[in-house]
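The following record pairs a protein chain with its ligand, pyridoxal-5'-phosphate.
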Amino acid sequence: MTLPIVPPFQAIALSRRAHQLQSAGRSVLHMQFGQPSAGAPQAALAAARSAMSGGQMGYWSSDSLRARLARHYAETYGLEIDPARIILVGGASAGLTLAFSLLFPQGSSVALTRPGYGPYRNGLAALRLVAQEIPSGPEVGFQLTAAALAATEPTPAGVILASPANPTGTMVTREELAAIAAICCGRGIQLISDEIYHGLSYGPKAHCALEVDPDAIVVNSFSKYYCMPGWRLGWLVVPERLADLFDAAAGNLFLTPAALSQHAALAAMDAQEELDGHLVTYAANRRTLIRGLEAVGITRIAPPDGAFYIYADVGHLTQDSMAFCLQLLEDMGLAIAPGIDFDPDHGKQTIRFSFAVSEAQCTDAVSRFHQWLQAR
Ligand SMILES: Cc1ncc(COP(=O)(O)O)c(C=O)c1O
């Protein structure tokens, strides 16, 4: 049997080196992963401590958390969601794995934009599915458009969309989302909406795909807005007709998500004031980075509407983004992600900064980057 070819996530190799340097005593700024440097909200930590002392740590899938998430959909998007449609999983990654493997027969194609989150493409390959890439440029904010999806041939079995997106932070409008949903409905394409960066926008709020497509599969997690990436907890919202299937598959494949994380996440959902405070920091970092990059002539970026990324074209400086990022790390202790993780082709000349760090760290990063470019 032929084994699938699964390219590695390059930022992981770079991060390993960053940690080696740090262990050797170097000062390293970590902007390589989409990982908030602020930890879980205080209330989440308190709930976790209390759960540990209470010994409630068996296999468990929290009804209270599902009900709280359903309330979140009502309050945030005006959507009424039956908690039975919410499937708790070990992060958006597990949710994507479940959705890809259940919805699409082996060998089918799933459309996605290039650039896009690398593990979509590589994860599809691991599951013996085919990533049908839709090249997307700065003129459309590197986003999926209804027109591009309508023109995609042959008709893919599914399409995955993230708004705000990784690596660009750009968003689609509600009108475009509705137009995309209409194309999906007309062509029989299953829409998967990765809403992991919801709650993190610098202008208009993001819209849930369920506002325009009741049949969409929604993926989300506690890793980004809630600052709990290592707690490995996420969820899916699936149509009622698929709820039993997803629930049974999740139970068989994963049993339950981590009990400790579920206790903490329930408390995190009421920590909005603390969490919105991080958004103020990210907004300041966004400005600092955009200005800092402009000052050194890096202007080919799509200003992010949300998330915490800047994806920049540095084609005038390198044709090998991995070597560029590794050298920057060795010389200045600044870790950023090479564009090849998001676009194997054009990504050779792009880089991605994650600005989910403190304002002081962001200013330090800009200064190290400037010094490095001047010395080159
Ligand atoms: C767009 C997108 N989807 C999914 C994930 C995976 O998130 P999780 O930590 O919830 O597995 C990430 C992580 O960076 C992401 O950027």
